[in-house]
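Re: export button greyed out
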Amino acid sequence: MTAHFTPVKSHAVAIPSNDIDTDQIVPARYLKMTDKAGLGAALFADWRYNPDGSPKPEFVLNAPNARGAQILLVGDNFGCGSSREHAPWALTGYGFRAVVSTSFADIFRNNALKNGLLPIVVDGDVHGELMSLVARTPQAELTIDLERQTLTLPTGRTVSFPIDPFSKTCLLEGTDELGYLLSFEREIAAFEDGESSRSGT
Amino acid sequence: MQRTLFEKIWDAHVVAHESGAPALLYVDLHLIHEVTSPQAFTSLRERGLKVRRPNRTMATMDHSIPTIDRTLPIVDEMAAKQIRYLEDNCREFGIPLHGMRSPHRGIVHVIGPELGLTQPGMTIVCGDSHTSTHGALGALAFGIGTSEVEHVLASQCLLQYKARTCEVRVEGRLGRGVSSKDIILALIAQIGIGGGTGHVFEYTGPAIRALTIEERMTICNMSIEGGARAGMVAPDDATIDYVAGREFAPQGAAWDEAVRRWRQLPTDEGATYDKSITLNATDLEPMITYGTNPGMGMPITSRIPDPAGIADTNQRAALEKALKYMALQPGQPLLGQRVNVVFIGSCTNSRISDLRLAAGLLEGRRVAQGVRMLVVPGSQDVKNQAEAEGLDDIFKRAGAEWREAGCSMCIAMNGDQLEPGEYAVSTSNRNFEGRQGKGGRTFLVSPLTAAATAIAGKITDVRTLL
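Workaround output, generated via the alternate export path:
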C-alpha cells in the first residue's frame, strides 16, 4: 500500500445490518483467484445478484444513487468471521474508501487498514443520525478528514473518530508497513540468536 | 509481577516496540495454505524478497481441494491453478509443503498439532481465522490477512498491538451426550459473536482441565466465532503427553528443557484478566444454532426465540432476517426438524476422537433414508487411523460417504456443498448465509448430535440414543 490517503468527500451507501460477516462481503467461491483484481464485482455477490447473475433491484448497491459512493455505512461488528483479505480488496475494488460502523471485527479492521480502506468507529448516536440521514437524503455528502480525524455531516456537525497513530501515519504518508518491519533487521536477527541459544538448537 | 499465559508468551516474543507504534512480535510457526497465500508470494516476488525462515513455515492445501479420489485430476480449473501456484511458490522459496501426495496432508489446523509442529508457548499464525485452534496446546495462535502473511514470510514478524485478556472459566463437568462443542456454542450464544472482540480468551476451570487436547482444540477453534483474537488453554500433563513423541516435538535433552519451560507458562496465581466470564458445564445441554451466525444458538430442547420479544431494534431485525433465511418460525422447536445433509468434518470437529464418537453411535444403525451424510476426516493421518480402527466400515455400512481429508463442506469451495434451501446439521464452525453453499441452511452441532440426527433424519437429542 503506497497511495496517500486524501480527504474523502462522498455520499454514503447504508447496509444497516449488524454482524455482516466476510462470507457475505465476498462468498468463498470467489477465493480461488491468485490475484486481487476484479473482486469489486464479487462484493456482496449473494445479496447483490440473482442466480442468473442479473442484479437484484432491491439491493442497495444496485440502486442508481449508489454509483460513485466512497463511504459504506454498516451495522455493528462489521467484517466478522473469516480472515480473508479479499473482503477489503472487494470493497476497495468497488470504490469504497471508508467504512463507518459502531465496531469492526479485529482481523477485518487490520486487513482494511493495510489496503487504504479506513474503518471509522462512531458512537450509537452518531451512527443513528448517519443512518437516518442516508435514508432521507441518499446523496447527502459526508467529509472524512483523516489528518484531523473528523467526519463531517452536511448539517455541519463534525465528530471525531479514533485511529492509532501508527496506522494514521501509514495511511496519510503511504508508508509501507513491510518496509518498516524490515528496518528492524538487526533486532530480528538478535532476537533469533537469543532464541536459538535459549532453546539449545 | 504475576502474569497470565497470554502475557508470558507475548513478552517472550516482542522483538522491538517503538512508542506510538505496534510491537514487532516474533512468529515461531507460520502455516500457509493455497487460498490466502498466493497474493503474498506475488508481492514478495515483485519486491525481490526472500522467505526469511522457510523452516519456520509449513504449507498444505486444504480449502479448495476435492475430497474425492485423489488419483483423479482436479476438474475445477481455478482450484487446480491455486494448488499449482502453492506448489510452485513452496518450491521457489524453499518452504516445506504437505501437498496432494503427502501422507500427512490435511486441514492446516489438524496437521499442525498432529505433527507436533504446534507446541506450548509458541506464537503461531496463519492466513485463516481458525488458527485459534492451536491455542489448545498453550500457544498464542491467531488468524491474519494476506498482507500480514507477506509480512511474516519476509520478516518472521508481525506488527501487533497487545490484545486484552478475558478469562473464560468453565466450572462443573459435562453430562452424558454433552461435549466440548456444546461448551463453545453455549459461550458464543451467551456473549454474542462480537463479545470477545479485542480480547484473547484463556479457558480455565475444572471442565476445561477434564477435556482432552482434541476437545480443547474444538473450543479454541471457535474462539474467533465469539470475536476473540485467540483462545488458549494453559499446558498441563495432558498437553505434554499429547506433544511427546510427535514428529516435530523436541527430542532428548531438548525435550526435557522444553517441558521445563512449558511448565512455567500457566497463568500465575493472582494474575488478573481484563475481563472474565463464567459458565457451568454441569448445566449444559447439547447445543444447536437456529440462525445465521454462531451466536444464534440454544439448548437443543429449547424453542426458537421470538423476535417480538427483543427490545433492541437491530437485534430484532437480525433475528427476523435470519429466520426468514432459515425458513423457521419463532417459538418453533428444532427437535424433529427434518434435515437433508449431515456433515461431519472441518477444523472444529474432524479429529479421530470426533469420528470415534460419531461412529460409536452409528455402529449397527443406518443413516435415515433421504439424508446424505458426509464424513470428511481432518487429515490423511486421521483417515488412516480411522480405517485402522474400522470406523470407515461403520460409516459406509450406515450409508455415509467416507471421503478424503479437506475443509470440504465447511467452506464449500471444492464442490462439496448444499443445494439452495437444503438443511444441514454440521459439525463445522459457521452457519453464515451461504457458507455451506449458496442458499444452504446450516445448524451447527457436535459430532454426537450430528450422528444422532443422521440416524433419525431429523434433529435429535443424542441423549435419547445413549
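Chain B touches chain A through 70 residues (CB under 8 Å). The button fix ships in the next patch.
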